[in-house]
Amino acid sequence: MHQNPQHPAKPFDIIVVGAGIIGLATAYRAYKQGHNVMVIERNSRPTGASIQNFGHACFTGQADELQAMVAKSREGWISAAQDAGFWAAQPGTLIPATSDVEMSVLEQFANHRGQEQVTLLSPSEVEQRLGHQRLKPVGGALLPLDMRVNPREAAATLAQWLEAQGVTFQWNTTLRSTADGVVDTSRGQWEAQRVVLCPGVNLSYLLPDLAQAEGVRSCTLSMALVERPDHIASDFCMLTGTSLARYDGFSAMASVPELRQELQQREPELVECIANLMVTAIPEGLLVGDSHDYHDSPTPFISEETASLLQSKAAAYLGVDKLRVKQRWQGVYADSPSTNLVVHRPDAKTVVAVVASGIGMTLSFGLAEHILDQF
Ligand SMILES: Cc1cc2nc3c(=O)[nH]c(=O)nc-3n(C[C@H](O)[C@H](O)[C@H](O)COP(=O)(O)OP(=O)(O)OC[C@H]3O[C@@H](n4cnc5c(N)ncnc54)[C@H](O)[C@@H]3O)c2cc1C
């Protein structure tokens, strides 16, 4: 059994497995509570869903039941960004409405949540925020409380900062199994009073029976980094009509069934690839996506048809004929048709936590608090 290098006679208070944003947020919260923390990660740096995404903390669009958790997450992102020194902006999320039905959903949502969360915009205000007049929106909304981070920076910088504060990181080390505070890894055993497993989509390999019971599968998404046109703001963040039909907060509104019918007629190709057409800006350019494909063993191949479709639809919103693609990738996250969140306690010293939907950046620091409250 390896010893805690900082207190050889004493086991760690908490071992966190997985240096994605859920594991790192948990390590951050535990460190801030004064605990002696170790993080075990099978890679040499974060490479999972937490760096593949839009860096969009979409607090407002989440279901009413999740609002308490996302408020804590928002506070956690602000605090971690200040401590670790990574970019976390609050430009708000722009949602241009391109039809009366989309505008009705936004109006209903504004009535439901109130002005602090949803600011309705006139067509000219949307054009001003888009930086062009080609889209001809009927109106739109701004969600001012949502936040943005750069996913290529945030997790890695947070890990470096935690390591500099004395949190022990055991990189290139794979967890094989754990029970009653003892973790068995590819580099031997460690012990802690509490163990938190945050393996993301790898839950299916680590704990296949739990993954099966919770319906956890992979969701693959077609993503691209494109050059940012000059008229698009450097902290730009946009959701569209497909997003209104997707996120639980919006989709609870009365006009969403009508919106779904409209999308089916107006944008059948987007509906076919289960698109959530959205764009966010990072220093390297604009992140454009996404489509959704669900499978327990996903295909590694990116459909050029789907990728081109998403880029041409995004180009129309951005007021350009074509976008110059710099990178493409297939993002993967854990999904379940039956739950957004798997929080399981196999024994008194162990918690397993997986976000089973595309909202892990949004929930992260709020979920971390919920995880630590389980003990
Ligand atoms: C394309 C895309 C777009 C998205 N957009 C958004 C968005 O805009 N907003 C939002 O809120 N969410 C978004 N998401 C979802 C979000 O990225 C995920 O929900 C979140 O990153 C999950 O974090 P995680 O820490 O659970 O997983 P991961 O980041 O995948 O981290 C899990 C870590 O555990 C490690 N691990 C696994 N098994 C072991 C083991 N046995 N031993 C050691 N280490 C192990 C892995 O190596 C990995 O580093 C998106 C996801 C994708 C892919």
Automatic annotation (TrEMBL):
It holds the Pfam family DAO. InterPro entries: FAD-dep_OxRdtase, FAD-dependent_OxRdtase_HpnW, FAD/NAD-bd_sf. Keywords: Flavoprotein, Oxidoreductase. One of its GO terms (molecular function) is oxidoreductase activity. One of its GO terms (cellular component) is cytoplasm. Signal peptide: none annotated. The lineage of its organism: Bacteria, Bacillati, Actinomycetota, Actinomycetes, Mycobacteriales. PANTHER family: D-AMINO ACID DEHYDROGENASE, SARCOSINE DEHYDROGENASE-RELATED. Belongs to the DadA oxidoreductase family. Its cofactor is FAD. Residues 13-372 form the FAD dependent oxidoreductase domain. It comes from Corynebacterium pseudopelargi. This is D-amino acid dehydrogenase small subunit.
